[in-house]
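Hi all, posting the design record for the shared folder.

TITLE: backbone redesign
STEP: 1 of 1
STRUCTURE INPUT:
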């Protein structure tokens, strides 16, 4: 099969009709038939912003009412930091050196590939019912939890590179990520930054900024993005500890350009079951009776 035919097939598979009712028929119909959960007013507001802008920013207090789950998540993270204190200090010294590996400025505290642990607060948080309500409603199907982790982003002084530059994720039609700040984030801490409405549902989905290739991946500088989407329209996720950012990273975004101090946050990702995303989360089929039927659907095992 030549490259042109492969390109045509790939384009057809990504059309909304084929993607939803061909590649994701089962989770789509399952959601339409079995989902009976009304969204809360807060969830509706977040969903509306996601649909129109591709990004919604809220807080633990507004979204969860200051849930105990957040306190447990924060406590578990502090324990991780303490256990790996010396290792983290050693890794920080390599944050400015791209020659030793990709994204040396960012440490995945739980490892890059995980086995789902039903006893872990990091796993449990990603399956919180309110988060799933939004993910499923945004996809209009039972979305699949693909990833969760804690990111420790080290302050560095080198030129912006990799995810610090503008880009969009290509593994699915919609890619919903949550970023939960576990410490205050200001301009110098590498805040998540987004070009609103550049996702597939958005009115600016067709913008085409200039780019260069970095390891085969398209990257765009601030200057190139500003030329087609003026910086005054960018949404910069500055916020206090407990700030929550929902974003469809199929839209243009960047983050992690920490300069003055480190950034610490929890993140998780939801895609469709047909996503081309690398399998970053292995889910055992025998996780027991800990979770509801809907949560099992969102793990892709029912």
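Okay, here is what came back for every position:
SEQUENCE:
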């Amino acid at each position: 099969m030549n490259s042109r035919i492969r390109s045509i097939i790939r384009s057809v598979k990504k059309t909304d009709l084929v993607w939803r009712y061909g590649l994701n028929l089962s989770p789509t119909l399952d959601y339409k038939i079995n989902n009976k959960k009304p969204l809360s007013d807060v969830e509706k507001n977040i969903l509306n912003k996601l649909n129109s802008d591709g990004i919604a920013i809220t807080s633990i207090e507004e979204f969860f009412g200051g849930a105990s789950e957040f306190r447990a998540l924060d406590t578990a993270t502090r324990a991780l930091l303490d256990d790996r204190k010396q290792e983290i200090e050693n890794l920080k010294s390599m944050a400015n050196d791209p020659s030793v590996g990709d994204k040396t400025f960012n440490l995945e505290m739980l490892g890059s590939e995980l086995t789902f642990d039903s006893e872990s607060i990091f796993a449990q948080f990603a399956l919180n019912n309110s988060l799933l309500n939004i993910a499923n409603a945004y996809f209009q199907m039972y979305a699949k939890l693909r990833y969760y982790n804690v990111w420790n982003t080290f302050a560095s002084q080198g030129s912006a590179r990799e995810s610090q530059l503008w880009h969009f994720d290509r593994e699915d039609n919609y890619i919903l990520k949550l970023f939960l700040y576990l410490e205050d984030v200001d301009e110098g801490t590498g805040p998540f930054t987004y070009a609103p409405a550049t996702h597939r549902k958005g009115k600016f989905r067709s913008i085409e900024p200039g780019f260069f290739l970095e390891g085969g991946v398209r990257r765009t500088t601030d200057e190139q993005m500003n030329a087609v989407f003026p910086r005054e329209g960018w949404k910069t996720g500055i916020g206090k500890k407990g700030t929550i950012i929902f974003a469809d990273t199929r839209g243009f975004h960047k983050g992690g350009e920490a300069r003055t101090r480190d950034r610490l946050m929890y993140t998780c990702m939801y895609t469709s079951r047909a996503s081309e995303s690398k399998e970053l989360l292995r889910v055992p089929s025998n996780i027991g009776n800990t979770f509801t039927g809907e949560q099992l659907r969102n793990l892709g095992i029912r």
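COMMENT: The chain has a mean pLDDT of 91.
Let me know if anyone wants the other runs.
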